[in-house]
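Lab meeting prep.
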Amino acid sequence: MTTDAIAKNDYMKFVTPALTCVILAGLFLFPRFVDNPYALHLMILLFMSTIMGQSWNIVGGYAGQYSVGHAAYFGAGAYTTMVLMQQWHIPPWYGVLGGMAVALVVALVIGSICFRLRGPYFVLASIAVAEILRLSAMNLKDFTNGAEGILATDIPPLTVGGQVVTDFLSKVPFYYMGLLLVILTVVVTYGVQHSKLGYCLQAIREDQDAAHSLGINLTLYKNVALTISALLTSLAGSLYAVYIGFIDPPTVLGLDISVQIVLICIIGGIGTLYGPVVGSLVLVPLSEALRSNLISEAIFSTGIVTESSAVGTFLKENLAHAHALIYGVLVVIVILFMPDGVLGFLRKLMAKRGNGGRVGAPSVCQAKETSGGAA
């Protein structure tokens, strides 16, 4: 490592925590200066997306176990919270704990079954188990209300010592709940990444047989990673259920939820601390732009396609429902041109600029990875 690289590394060690503190301060003050409900709604969606991606990253990114059935834990948190609140009138902050307990049981059952398999067989098994849960929720009508779903009619106010902390009548309480959960998931992921557990998971990801030959208990560490991931994912499910106020099996247990969770990490950067954050910053605005026809209007404003033409009419009527197609195209682009995700692509650009375009010279990013600070 050259002297310049060491100096830049020390500089980044100072700048990164300072920049993190500034961003956190800005996020905590955001509702005080922005009271637009749609802006707060976007931020809450961004927080939920980050929580889901960060949770999957522990088992998928660090342990290399590509689960495509995380909707099971998301749905476990959502359904447990809503059923406890609507049928037994238990406040959602206690229901969250129930959701985590159910997700823990589901994770242990799924892990004990699916971790006997590897590669694509594990992926298919995780999908199958999540589908079993979705069909169970669809048919257990006395418990889950079946396809009709559960509608939250009233959320009790949060009181501490007889004083009302919040009544959940605005989006601000959900904003702060989402922000605190994001901080929790990032801290947990950072702790996993820099612990013995994280090193063992990364060894399993690189070569399971080699890791096993070194004495690493594959089943134990995989199940621990899945358990942590499931608990955090259930928190996102509980937040979603209370915030939206309605759930049904396709909404919280559907395969598209699992795929969306995986896409967040693939696009942002698998196995990195901030990859899910970057993936959420890409997917959530894109999803909202598709839903509100902003992309169609942008195309019309360029004059390339007129709104009254046949192509314009087709785009206006169908582009808002083509999010799965757009996501697929985006994933293909990322895999072909940014195999390390958007975050990895940006790091390479920064490293190239830092080296003056020289190929093979040591960069700040390479120096950080060498010293174990890859995140």
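Slide two material, second protein:
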Amino acid sequence: MSIVTVRQNPIHSALLHAPIGAIIIDQAGVIVWANAMSAGLLGEAETTSLRHCVVYVWLGEKDAETLRQMIDIHFRTPIEARIGWSRRFDLLASEGNAHEVELTLAPLTQDNSEHAMLYIRSLKRVVTAERRFAKIFETLPIGILIVDGQQRIVRVNKTLACEFGYMREELIGRKLDILLPKRYRDSHTSEVANYTREPSSRMMGSGRDLTGLHRSGQEFPIEIALTRHENASQPLYMAIVSNISYRKRAEVATQQTNAQLEEFTYVASHDLRSPLRGIADLVGWIREDIDETTLSSEVLHNFERIAVRIQRAEQMIDDLLKYARVGVRDPHMEIIEPRTLIEDALALCTIPDSFHVEVNVEAGALRAPPAPLATSLRNLVSNAIKHHGDTKGVISIRVVEDGRFTVFTVEDDGQGIPEGTEERIFKLFHRGSTKADGDGVGLAFTRRMINAHGGMINVTSPGTLGGARFDIYWPRILLKEFDDA
């Protein structure tokens, strides 16, 4: 071992107060100069206490041997061919705790072949950031994998492994092809090559239906977001994979239901309307051919009953068609003052003088399509009168805000609805009472219309007035899915 004192020079002056540890060592690893930061990182109070010490003493046995080999190779290399290279080590603190650092061994100057510079960079912040990333990576309820440039899986979280039917360990090191249907693999190779040339954060296969390959051989719909994963060595790429099976099933079910309903209603309306018109024509011709003065009052009454029932059947067909069409959201949005909306709706209702309507508004304006909301209120007010059970009564309409909804409550002091029928009254063609006119479409129509606009309707009976109480939750703050529709 040779002990050499390196005189202060401009390089030392520049590194003396650098925010990174810098020490100069000789071929035996003996420290001949050190700056203040290196003393702090090595747990020493003064830089003088570092001099003439061997740098390996702050490392464990295995790391010390590795650094010794690095230094040996460095000094055996011709000075003109020496390059810097870095490696992570654990510094052993006085309390026995390891402190991870990055040591970079680099040539000092071209004319100093007997010494080398050893930079020490604390990795505390890096390690903390890596631990945070690892925690997020592992706990996210969405699948994430990282692949290298050869499309080998280098990291995968538990969620993704479960989605594809594997243990996480079974996927590490495997080619990404294992998760792709065979028909995609050839084209995927070229797509990956294109992506790695200009990696950016984006969705994969925009506008296409992507599927993943489950271990069972079954495919399932997925969405993939791609991004470059920053890495000090080779380039890595991250894919965030969402299993959208539930969403796709719901979309397909909704589309099928709407298509079947529309088909049913149009077919039913055509098949029912034609014979009804034929019956109406026949009844009209019979009445024209006979002298009605010779008919009894009972026969004339029956003719009138036939006409009324035909009219009701035609009205039912019209309601059925409205019901099918109302599943589509009205795109016409306006700023609505609730009190004005209620007054307009009441103006179009036939309200007997014997009924008293109370209106209490404690909510601000909302942005919504006025037609379906006003129609819903008219239906509820008409029902409150029709099914009240008495010729006089009280109807209360209140408006409040509840979270992202404006709640319209229509309540009466009538007979209410029978217990246990709260859900059934919203079904198509279900009539709460046979004593009142109607075809059982109104409430089904109302609920379908409210649901189509992102709202909901509930019924309580008895309400605070003793009768039925309906609460319409109409969104005053639209969710993005409805705003984009």
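Talking points for slide two:
DSSP finds 13 helices and 18 strands in the chain.
The first helix runs from residue 10 to 15.
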